[in-house]
UniProtKB/TrEMBL annotation:
Source organism phylogeny: Bacteria, Pseudomonadati, Bacteroidota, Cytophagia, Cytophagales
Domain Type I restriction enzyme R protein N-terminal: 35-142
Superkingdom to which the source organism belongs: Bacteria
Protein name in UniProt: Type I restriction enzyme HsdR N-terminal domain-containing protein
Gene3D superfamilies: 3.90.1570.30
Amino acid sequence: MEPLNLPSFAYKVKQVSGKPYIFDIIRRKFVSLTPEEWVRQHFIHLLITHYGYPKSLFAVETGLKYNSLAKRTDIVILSVDSLPFLLVECKAPSVPVNEAVLAQIGRYHFTLQPRFLAVTNGIDHYCFKIVNGQIHYLDDFPKYRAYNP
């Protein structure tokens, strides 16, 4: 897999029928190792080890309805009161973080109303919040304890 602009971590990979699978510590199972999954797993570990997010509040690859369409969120972290706190959209490193990606996470924001949003392709990362329809970019990702004492 391609090197990313994210800290490395001790990952477990195995082959199943000639295809690579990586262990997901949130879903507690091996999942197909695609370029997007490579980014997702790195970002999960970043949020846990560097920003203090508890594993118990993660939801990975969960469904939501948007205008009667079934969609999947990459990473949702809940607050202590079980509301969406941080929504993360992961893309493969070859997919640029552009207006289309921002529009996608904006649609998810409309449904879930998380406090913070983030997009990453493993190379470029952006975190922001939407207040009164305006995007406010943050210099860094929010540390969990700073908002959930």
